[in-house]
């Protein structure tokens, strides 16, 4: 059975994406993708992965990190894990 993401976890993820990518507090990040967000460069991507790992207590291997280039992909990835 696939885990679902709680509203609280989704809210935390959105906050992490906004903060890490230096987006306005009211920015809708649900459609964000690396190629469409100017501040989402390789350094920001590493910072984003580290922030997600720290916040959600998951370890994201490098192969997965390379694929997680949009908010939707990150959300799907996290949905498959048990989150606190």
Total number of helices: 4
Shape: globular
Would you report the number of β strands?
0
CATH superfamily: ACP-like
Question: What is the chain-wise order of helices and strands?
Answer: HHHH
* Major sheet characteristics: none
Mean pLDDT across every amino acid position: 92
Main CATH class:
Mainly Alpha
Which blocks of ≥5 consecutive residues have pLDDT under 50?
none
Could you tell me the strand content as a percent range? Answer: under 5%
Q: What is the number of domains?
A: 1
Spatial separation of the terminal alpha carbons? 17 Å
What kind of oligomer do you see? single chain
Tell me the CATH topology.
Non-ribosomal Peptide Synthetase Peptidyl Carrier Protein, Chain A
Residues in helix, %: 40-55%
Assign the structural class, choosing from mainly alpha, mainly beta, alpha/beta, alpha+beta, or little secondary structure: mainly alpha
Estimated radius of gyration: 12 Å
- The CATH architecture designation is Orthogonal Bundle
């Amino acid at each position: 059975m696939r885990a679902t993401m709680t509203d609280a976890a989704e809210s935390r993820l959105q906050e992490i994406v906004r903060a890490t990518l230096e987006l306005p507090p009211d920015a809708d990040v649900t459609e964000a993708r690396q190629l469409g967000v100017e501040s989402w460069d390789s350094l920001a991507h590493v910072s984003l992965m580290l922030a997600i790992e720290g916040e959600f207590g998951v370890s994201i291997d490098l192969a997965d990190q390379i694929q997680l280039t949009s908010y939707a992909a990150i959300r799907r990835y996290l949905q498959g894990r048990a989150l606190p």
